[in-house]
Write a structure and sequence with these properties.
Length: about 350
């Protein structure tokens, strides 16, 4: 089909090499400055040391100093960095991408501005693009773990962008009989939905930690986890409207919330909080891992506080988020504010 270059050899970008390669694309995977060990091992036997999967024979691997070679002739670029690499990609990569080549991003997260505005990464990039650089941006969101995608488990996600015709062309490179892709022009809605779920996955997983702390008491405790899931969806639904996204995108937030609570770093942070660990202890336990859930929960809570101060929202409408923030940033112990969840009125559901 074409030449696709992925910049960032993280788990999700690397998992995307499976449908891309199987669709007949020439696939080039470029490691960031942090991916040296990953690329070195991939060059030996195609084994990805973090994904714990063997990639297809025939994929081409590049170190960051070879990125220009990897971009030469590319028809599509995938941004595969974590949220901590957003500014690096902005300042170092966009200026290298050949003119007219679109970029689709797997990076999830938001920036909070002093007035409480929450900005999704494609909008942030567009606003701060280096002078003279004009790149068409698209993004990926929805419930999909990298290992399940690598194993060809049926996955249903959405790709977003303003040019739906170009987006359809991008989809043709990725879609397979196991990787199913919907299209939407609601960039803010989709990207906000899948960013918010990281912070709320942390909040929902606190119930798992509380259960572990109790020991084997013979109670499944699925009620409490489901209640936190339910409250998470309600708070994310409200936030989608606040950031200017279509609230129908809540389906992707909910799906992604479910898959994230099932496993991963966001779950671990919430679980450890529920078990009684402090944030310094949790950071030590998860040393070396990127804790994106902590960042997005903190930024979202900070934005809500700023908007509340300006009279735009009420902090009391987001009791789970506010409690998560207290636990993450102010030394509070987990004490789920169940009574505060009883705030949904007939007017709120209009």
């Amino acid at each position: 089909m074409g030449i696709v270059t992925l910049v960032g050899a993280g788990q999700m970008a690397s998992a995307l090499t499976f449908p891309l390669f199987e669709n007949g694309n020439e696939v080039r995977l470029v490691g960031t400055p942090l991916d040296g060990d990953v690329i070195a091992r991939l060059r030996q036997d195609n084994y990805h040391i973090n994904l714990d999967r063997t990639l297809h024979e025939g994929i081409k691997y590049y170190t960051i100093d070879q990125v220009d070679e990897a971009l030469d002739g590319a028809e599509l670029v995938v941004c595969g960095v974590s949220s901590f690499g957003v500014d690096w990609f902005l300042n170092e990569m966009f200026k290298r991408i050949p003119k007219g080549v679109p970029v689709i991003s797997v990076t999830k997260g938001m920036i909070d501005l002093p007035d409480g505005t929450l900005q999704v990464f494609p909008e942030y990039w567009k606003e701060h693009m280096p002078e003279g650089v004009d790149v068409e941006l698209f993004a990926i969101g929805g419930p999909c773990t990298a290992r399940d995608l690598s194993d060809h488990d049926h996955s249903f996600v959405a790709y977003c962008g303003k040019d739906l015709e170009k987006l359809e062309w991008i989809r043709s490179h990725f879609e397979t009989d196991y990787y199913h892709i919907a299209l939407t022009d609601d960039v803010v809605g989709l990207e906000a939905a899948v960013a918010l779920k990281n912070g709320y996955a942390l909040g929902t997983a606190m119930a798992i930690g509380l259960k572990n702390k109790m020991g084997d008491d013979g109670i499944a405790h699925v009620n409490s986890k489901s209640a936190l899931f339910q409250q998470s969806v309600w708070e994310m639904y409200q936030l989608l409207d606040i950031v200017g996204g279509n609230q129908k995108m809540i389906m992707y937030a909910a799906g992604d919330l479910d898959v994230t609570v099932a496993g991963g770093r966001s779950r671990k942070v919430g679980q450890y909080l529920g078990e009684g660990y402090s944030m310094p202890e949790i950071k030590e336990k998860l040393k070396g891992q990127t804790l994106e859930a902590v960042v997005i929960a903190t930024r979202t809570a900070r934005a809500v506080k700023a908007m509340a101060k300006a009279g735009k929202v009420k902090e009391s409408d987001f009791p789970l988020l506010m409690h998560v923030d207290q636990c993450l940033n102010h030394g509070a112990k987990v004490d789920i504010p169940w009574k505060d969840f009883q705030t949904i009125t007939k007017d709120a559901l209009k």
